[in-house]
Specification:
It comes from Bradyrhizobium australiense. Pfam families: PilZ. By secondary structure, the chain is α+β, with helices and mostly antiparallel strands. It has 2 domains: 87 residues, predicted glycosyltransferase like domains (Thrombin, subunit H, Beta Barrel), CATH 2.40.10; 30 residues. It contains 1 helix and 7 strands; from the N terminus they run βββββββα. A 6-stranded antiparallel barrel has the order 1-2-3-6-5-4. It starts with 9 loop residues before the first strand and ends with a helix.
């Protein structure tokens, strides 16, 4: 089979979330390979996809992409990333900070309890 891709794809297994509807409906998926121009994603079962574009978020890479569906077969889908839309960063820094603050308050309460027992 002739390779038609313009860039080499890396084989990966990343968890992803695809926004597949105009109302914000999402489906979890697995990214099987990725390059700077596209990816192959797998859904757990057949899924109805918009033909224009979908949004793909890959938390592990900290990126989101607007993508066009190029092909699909059963539950595998090939997408090309839209060049005109810059990928936005996805950061878990806010969530980590919130958990850290909760842990800090718990530890401070425990320290206060231990000091009051003396």
């Amino acid at each position: 089979m002739q390779e038609r891709r313009e860039s080499v794809r890396d084989k990966v297994i990343y968890g992803g979330v695809a926004e597949i509807g105009d109302r914000g409906a999402t489906r979890e998926c697995i990214v099987r390979n990725i390059s700077d121009r596209g990816a192959t994603i797998e859904f757990s079962n057949d899924v109805q996809l918009p033909k224009e574009q979908l949004s793909l978020r890959i938390v592990r890479k900290g990126r989101s992409f607007l993508a066009k569906v190029i092909w699909w077969r059963d539950n595998f889908v090939g997408v090309a990333f839209r060049a005109e839309s810059p990928a936005e960063s996805v950061s878990d820094l806010g969530e980590r900070l919130r958990r850290s603050e909760i842990k800090k308050r718990q530890l401070q309460r425990r320290i206060d309890e231990l000091l009051s027992e003396r």
